[in-house]
Amino acid sequence: MLKKRLFATVVTAFLGMAAAVDASTVGAGSAPRGAVIGQPLDLLIALRLEAGEVLRPDCLTAEVTVGDQRLPPAQVRAVLENGPAGANALRVRTLIALEEPVVEVNIIATCAARLSRRFILFAEPRPVPAVTAVTAALAGTPPLPT
User: Fold this and answer.
1) What is the mean pLDDT of each run of 10 residues along the chain (146 residues)?
2) Cα dihedral sign for 121, 80, 77, 4?
3) CA-CA distance, 46 to 97, in Å (whole number)?
4) pTM for this entry
5) How far apart are CA 108 and CA 54, in angstroms?
6) CB neighbour list of residue 75: distance below 8 Å, 6 or more residues apart
7) CA–CA separation, 117 vs 76, rounded Å?
8) What is the DSSP letter of 29?
9) CA 46, CA 72: separation in Å to the nearest integer?
């Protein structure tokens, strides 16, 4: 009975995701942000479960594509993090740094039926400290005539 209810909830959640106008969905929180070029991916994707539902860690996997190259499964980690009721999340990390601005993360649930949710992220450029950028700009500029 619980297995059928879980399946129905997962199907409803993923159908809600497909129909959502904004990034918030029934089964997942808002679209993840924070990918930075030159750093490994580290995303925390909020999951919302019905009261009494349990999501097994072996039910979720993640596939990551950077640019047009899919990362090998050994380079991607997906860990279910449990918090207070209703505050479960899936943390997706890569072991290598991002070298392309477009990152696709595909979350796959496989327990009751194979369902997936895809996120397309635009990685931010590496942050440049403002002082360093200004100092470098001033160092290469000749002084103004007086």
Assistant:
1) 46 41 39 79 84 79 95 94 71 95 92 84 81 62 58
2) negative
3) 23
4) 0.64
5) 16
6) 64, 94, 95, 96
7) 16
8) -
9) 24
Q: Who contacts 3 (Cβ-Cβ below 8 Å, separation ≥6)?
A: 112
Tokens of 16: 């809600």
pLDDT tens by residue, 88-129: 888 999 999 999 999 999 998 887 778 889 999 999 988 776
Which pair of tokens denotes residue 89? 């999340």
Q: Which amino acid makes up residue 110?
A: T
Contact (Cβ atoms closer than 8 angstroms) between residue 68 and residue 99 = no
Q: What is the CA angle 97-136-98, rounded to 5?
A: 10
Q: How far apart are CA 72 and CA 84, in angstroms?
A: 32
Enter the tokens of residue 18.
């497909």
Can you tell me the distance from the alpha carbon of 125 to that of 78, in angstroms, rounded to the nearest whole number? 24
